[in-house]
Amino acid sequence: MNSRNVVRLFMTTLLVGGFTGGIAGMIIRWSEVQHYLTTFDLVSTFSSFFWLFGVGLIFSVISQAGFFAYLTIHRFGLGIFKSLWNSVQILFILFVIFDLIYLRYTNLETGDGLAPYIFPAVYVVIIGVLIAYIKAKRTSKKTFIPALFFMVVATILEWTPVLRGNDESWLYFMLIPLLACNTYQLLMLNKFIEQSQKELASKRGSAIIGDKNQKQLKVDDIAKG
To answer: Cα-atom radius of gyration of the chain, to the nearest Å?
Structure first.
């Protein structure tokens, strides 16, 4: 991917995170912003949205760091484990899901039972399977496991800062932008790569035409001389 499309991917993912964070934050924190809307306090409403938008940008940066880290890890994994890499990724997926449910439950010890800790994991897995299926349909079946690994393992690792607490509003406020940004990057990566290849081919074509024109000018000059 050329630098122009890297910047495009970065900026568009930032916007996805910002707007998703702003909208999700307004919904999740409805009890805090409801008063501004019912009293038509537009200044406070927009201030709240832009603050949530800014936090969404931070979540987007975390997502992008995780995405580029995964691309690097995936290359190393293919080189080290070769055909076993998919099996290794499945083991990591199962371990991280177990860690999200059971270890978080035992560490927090809220006494609420296991059910509240199962739902977030199931939610992430369902979204992960859906996005991995779409990715496989768009590209090839071989991408299903890597896509699922990224959507589940990377999302949960990026989610770690708020998982250590037990504030449900922050859990979903961070999770939704992360999932949105991870989904966008995963599904749009091929499009940006293809765009880069087209731009590169176009530049090469222009360069070849330019060389031919220069050679023709030299021939004409020699003929005139």
So the answer is: 24
Can you list the alpha helix ranges (DSSP code H) found in the chain? 3-28, 30-38, 42-81, 85-98, 104-108, 115-138, 144-149, 155-158, 160-163, 168-224
Q: At a CB cut-off of 8 Å and minimum separation 6, what does 70 contact?
A: 149, 150, 154
What tokens does 193 get?
A: 């790569």
d(CA 176, CA 17): 9
Interacting residues of 137 by C-beta distance below 8 A, sequence separation 6+: none
Residues 113-137 have pLDDT tens digits of 777 788 889 999 999 999 999 999 9
- Report yes or no: 174 and 161 within 8 Å, Cβ to Cβ: yes
| pTM (predicted TM-score) | 0.84
Place of tokens 């990057």: 185
Residue 25's identity, in one-letter code, is G
